Structure formats: structure tokens, C-alpha cells
Amino acid sequence: MNKDEIKNLLNSMTLDEKIGQLYQTIYTGSANTGPTFNTSNVIIDLKKGLIGSILGLCDNKVIYDLQKVAVEETRLHIPLLFCNDIIHGCRTIFPINLAMSCSWNVDLIEKASKVAAFESSHSGVHLTFSPMLDLTRDPRWGRVMEGNGEDPYLSSKLASSYVKGYQQKNISGENAIASCAKHFVGYGACVGGRDYDSVDMSDTMLYNFYLPPFKEAINSDVKMVMSGFHSYNNLPVTGNGYLLKKTLRKKLKFKGVTISDYNSVSELINHKVCKNEYDAANLAFNAGLDIEMVSDCYINNLKELINNNKISLKDLDEKVYSVLMLKNELGLFENPYGKIYPDFEKYFLLDDSVTTAKEVASESIVLLENDGTLPLNKFNKTLFIGPFVDEKKVIGSWGGKANFNDTITLKEALDNKKYNYCYIENYINKDCGIDISEVKKYDFDTIVYTIGETQSESGESRSKVDLTIPKIQDQLLDELIKLNKKIILVIFAGRPLILTKYKDYFENKLISGIVYAWFLGTTSGEVLIDTLYGHINPSGKLSMTFPNSIGQIPIYYNRNSSGRPFKENENNEYRLRYIDCSLKPLYPFGYGKSYSNFEYSNIYLDKDIMSKKSKIKVSCNVTNNSNIGGKEIVQLYIECLCGKYVRPIKELKGFKKIYLKPKETKNVSFYLSYKDLAFYVNDKLNYDYGDYLIYLGPNSDLNNYCKIKFIEQ
Ligand code: GLC
Q1: Where does 152-274 show beta strands of DSSP type E?
Q2: CA of 456 to the centre of ligand 1 (A)
Q3: Residue of the CA atom closest to atom 7 of ligand 1
Q4: What pLDDT was estimated at residue 405?
């Protein structure tokens, strides 16, 4: 339909029908199990035109039946919008988003999002509540697994990849879906890493760190933005006009639809900023919220609010119009059943989809330590032990339409490849102690020991204060060390864990390697085995800092400079430091090893003066000094030596992922423009003229730099 036809439809709607378009309910369950929610009134309300969209459906038969009611049994035949949480794959499950962000591969993540969109758009999903763009600096927060880490530049590039991959050229395309940037804004900065706790930050922090990924998603034409559960500077985002109107609409120029998070409109009462649902509807509506997800403050109160002149019919029409336009852009008026394929299962797990999942998983693994024992020799006998060797639940939280049986485990991959290995499942005795008598019956050269947290310990409402490895796993490690074999740790987690003990063990030659496996999704076991045995050369680099101690949290590379900066080898106690722990992280942002050995040289600037009229070309040589071809993520950071406001000690402003054949050298170059030097002061973009240091290297812990001057011309 064209805009006039949409306007005519809008004008023909009753007040109830308009309000209905702003109501999203949940309906789960399947045709044979029936609804698993108390949704008996869904069909009744639907027939009255009182429901605009539905969340969480996985069964095409149910989706079809509901759409049929909307299209054929309502007065105006307005189709339903079906939404779901497809955040790292639909049925072909990709690594958790935090793991994927460690690939730093913008094209590959776009490709993965296309696969997710393909499977979703053939199984009744019109819109996914993804990408999650919350900057994350606190691994106690369980939802770090959904995000792209701690850096605004990397997160912004990946935000664009997700939106373009989901939406492609047109969201009405048969392989495309609409996407939703969430959780606007600052949700990852919750106090104490406690999910749903409050957030406070300055505009300088908001504009320099937490907004850029949303800005990039909006520039990539994301269709929806979801408000977070949290309060922001003492006003819940869901009722925060400063964020939803002034910032999102005026500053970021977002023109799409806003939606609350699950029940977050009614939760304004729990925040104690509203006395009842009437007030909650009033606050959220006037703050700029369009669709209410699941709670029914709008459906029960908007009519009265209009009659009491608390909200305007004009505003209501504007909101309903944007929802109708989204449905129209999806092609739902012309083809409401277009994405509901009865035989949808045949579109799942296609070879190309699984191949893409393998590619992404192979670039998401982060090799933290290796004394040369990796890659393993398949002819040598290796003991595999630990809780994840034959575990299928390694796809991570928010598994879309996953079936755990699809997951290839490490053991299955070993069997498929007929490698020389043994697997010991039992090592805990009746007193819950460690018993490796079974292990001692076997002869082997190397041990691969899988440890970590289960996938149910990260995700929503999974904040933790203890990020260490479970004690029983440590006890087994200490027993295994007594066997004097080469030990490789493979760590499964949805967040950075505290690995200080294992790095010490490595440095004291008690273990030979540490591989961070995150939760890699459907192809987990196969990709891990290919990595351990060298068919894949790991190239992932950390998108979140790994702390030395939980006491360092929040810890991130781009922290502000201080009046008393810590200086190595200076014995001044009055410096930024801990008296009982290093200031440095265990592993810095951007860190990750390879089986190759990359060396940087010849960092070069084509000029050292920059203005708004000129760019600077920064380049260096990267050499692969090994006999193994591999990928390297070259990173460019700046450091402002004097700004109007205090700035971070380093700021990522560029990265390139390159492949180097054995012994190959490549020249890698970047162009820096004045825009890369900008830094917000409050909500105003600001340019600091003066000296900057430019760093080029393999991670954020760099000391060698070149100096440039940014002049006002
Ligand atoms: C959840 C999450 C949000 C998700 C929504 C719908 O509580 O906070 O990320 O998209 O509800 O499932």
C-alpha cells in the first residue's frame, strides 16, 4: 500500500483498533501442545482487532492460524507482526554474540545474520529482537554474552553488520527480516553488574561510549528500538522522554518504531515512579514509547487518557501510523502469509548455513596461551576429559529455534574423524571427590581438559559474583597435573572468567595451553577439534578485557587518564593503583594468539600534521614468521594528549583482519581523518586540537607509537 492508503486505513480505525496496534502479547506453544500461556483471550482480543503483534512463536501452524484470524476475521484485516528473539541464529546456531564479536569480522557477521534471517523468514518470523548493542564492561552481568564487548568503535561496526545482514536490501524480501536494536540505552552499565539494577552516567559517557552502536544501527536503517528495563539517571528508560525523544528521535534521528521490553511499562510501578497502570501508560506514552510488550497498561488505559486529555489523539495516530508503515514495508498487507512456510523445517540447517556457522565459530575461538603443544598431532593419543567433552548444551542462552540434538560435541567430532583419543567420563567418587584411577588405566601423550560454566549461567538475569572455575574442576586439574602430561585447557563460558590461576600454571609450565571456547553453537565440537588439531588456525581477539581479579571489575582498556597515572618502575605510592593487585588486566582488549607468529614493523605516517582538510595515512608491515598461514587483526588506537575534557588513555579507531601466508609480509594502512579524533563533551561533538599518539599493533596493550599534531585550519 502507498502512504495515502495507510493514512486512509488509519483514519478508518476505531480508537480501540488504534490502541490494539500498540499492544504486543506473547503466544508460545505449538499446534499440538496448544498455547502454553493463558492466552484464551488472545483469539477473542485478536478478533476485535485489539492485538497488533505477537512475541515468541516458533510453530508455523500456530502462526498461520493466528494470522488467518487477523486477516480474515477482523473488521479491517490488519495483519499481525510476528516477533522473536533470534540473536545468534534461528535453528543453525552461531556462537554467542560476545564470541562472534571476537572474530572482528564485519563481513562474516553480516553473512551469519543473513543465514539467521533466511531461517527466520521461512519460519514465520517478521522481526527479530536483535542486535543487542549494550556496551559491556562488567562480566558479572550475565547478558555480556549477547553483546559485542566493551568498545564503541568495534560494537558500532558490528551493529551495522547485524542490521544489514538481517534486513538486506528490503525487509519484505523472502530471505530478510526486520531488526530491533536493544536495549536502549546503557543497560550494560547496571550497578554491580546486577541485571535490572539502575544506571547512572553523564552525557559525555553516553555519547562517547553507549550511543555509538545505536547510532550506527540507525544509520543502517534498523526498524525498531527496544527500551531497556533499567532506570537511567533516576528515570526508567521506558518512561524517559530525554532518551526516547530528545536523544533517540532528535539527536539520532530514529524514525522507526519503539517497543518496551517485556512488561517494562507496568514495571514503572515497581520503579516507584508511577502509582498505577494508568500513570504508567501515561508516562511511557508521552515519553515516546510506541508498542507495549506483554503488559497491558496501554490497552486498558489509553482510551481514558485520551478522554482526560493526558495524551493526544495526534500522538496516538503517529505511533499507529509507524507500526502500520512497518507492516507495510514488510509486505504484510499484500502477502500476510508470505513468510509462513508449512514445510519450514526444510529451510533449516542447510549445508551453506552450517558452513557459515563453522566459519564464524572458527574465528570466534580465542587462543590465550600455547607453549607449542598446539596444534595436537592426531596420531598421538590424547585424553579428553571434563564436563563439556560430550555436552550438547553448548549453544549458549537465547538459542532461537535450536534443537540441542543438532549440536556436534567434541566427542562426536573425534569419533567422526577417527582420531586417536580416549575419553574418561567418570572421575568423581561416591564422596564427590576426585578419583582418577580410571584415567591411570590409559596411556596417552596429551590431555585436553574441558572446564568452565554451564550455558545456563549466562544470559538474562544470570549475574554472578563468583567468576572463578568451579572448585571440583580445579581439583581434577590439580590431580591431572600430577600425571606430568601436556595439558590443554578448553574453557566454555558466556563471559570473561577469572583465569589468573591458569595463567600462572601456564607460566610455571604446569599446563601447556588455554583455549577460550565460549559457547560456539551447533558446530561447536567439530570446530574445536579442527582448531585443536590445526585444521583451523585460531584468530579471535578479545572484545572484552579479562580481569586479573574480580575486584578489578569494571575493568576496560579505554579508561580515562588520571591526575596520578600509574607509571611502571616508579616507586611513588601515590599513584592510581591497587595495593593488593596489579592495575593491569589478565588479558587486555584485543588480545588473542595464533599458531602463526606475527611481527609488526615499519610503523609509518605519511605526514604528522592533520587538519579538517587533510587525512593522515598510517601504515605498518606485518610479517608471518611461521610456517602456518593465519589471520591477524591489526588494530589502530589513538591517545589524545590534551583535550577539553578528560579522555580515555586509548581509543580504538580502526582495525583490519588480514590473512598472511607462511613467511609473508603485508603492508597494512589506515586513513585517519579529523572525525576519528572527535570526542563528545556532554552531548556536543568536540574537536581537541593538539598532539595525539597513534598506536598500531596486535592488541590494546601497546607502547610503541607515532606522534601527530591536529591543527585548526
Ligand atoms: C526479554 C529481554 C529482551 C527480549 C524480550 C522478548 O526479557 O530483555 O532482550 O527481546 O524480553 O523476549
Answers
A1: 178-184, 224-227, 231-232, 235-236, 257-259
A2: 16
A3: 262
A4: 96
